[in-house]
Fold this sequence. Notes:
Elements lengths: L11 H12 L11 H6 L4 H10 L4 H30 L4 E3 L10 E3 L4 E8 L5 H17 L4 E8 L6 E4 L10 E5 L1 H8 L4 H16 L8 H14 L3
Parallel strand pairs: 3-4, 4-6
Antiparallel strand pairs: 1-2, 2-3, 5-6
Helix pairs in contact: 1-4, 1-7
Amino acid sequence: MEKNKYVDFLSDEDFLKCVQWVCDAYPKEKRKQDMKKLQKNTLDPFKLYFDAINKEKSVNEWLVMESSRQYDKTVNNRVGEFHQMVLGKVIGWEDLGRGDKTGLDLKKSDSSIFIELKNKENTVNSSSMAKVYDKLEKALEDYPNAIMYWGFVFSMKGDSGEKVWKYLGKENSKIKMVWGKKLYELITGDKNALDKLFEALPKAILDISESHKNLTQKDLKQMVDIFKESFKN
Length: 233
């Protein structure tokens, strides 16, 4: 059997589909400022005044900056969705997408585990957190033998872990939190799965993008240092 080129917990075809999803959010050619497209998201002329004067930008320079910001917002959203797509393609798991009755993001195919997935812990405010907990409680009523998780990739402490989620005096051994490398380990069974994903990513991006950018050893070292700081333990 031929060895996978990228990661051993996902087929090359599936992995490249996930990477392609993010890469497609980037413009394929050097972008010109399309005023109609920029105005579709409503340009803020008040912010233009503040930026132009405080950042010493011409209007055209500001339009380039705003165009980049709008593309970056799309890219950021897709990077968050990337993890859901990857984990949902692991054998024995499903990406629930939208429209599932639980409203959750991922489940084990035998319905023994469900996960509400977020990219970063600090993007969930108190109001959103209450909604997540309520959603997990509701899903548990429909699947009383399952374990329900709030999962996130990046924690504010830069660590990894798993524990029962105690929230506003509520505690249920079937409602848990899982984050960082433990999230990937829970789904793949491999404690090094997230490391493998990170290591394979630049190779996959270069294989499918039109970029010919070769990262220097200095670049790679800096990226690895940032990864280690984000997942310290």
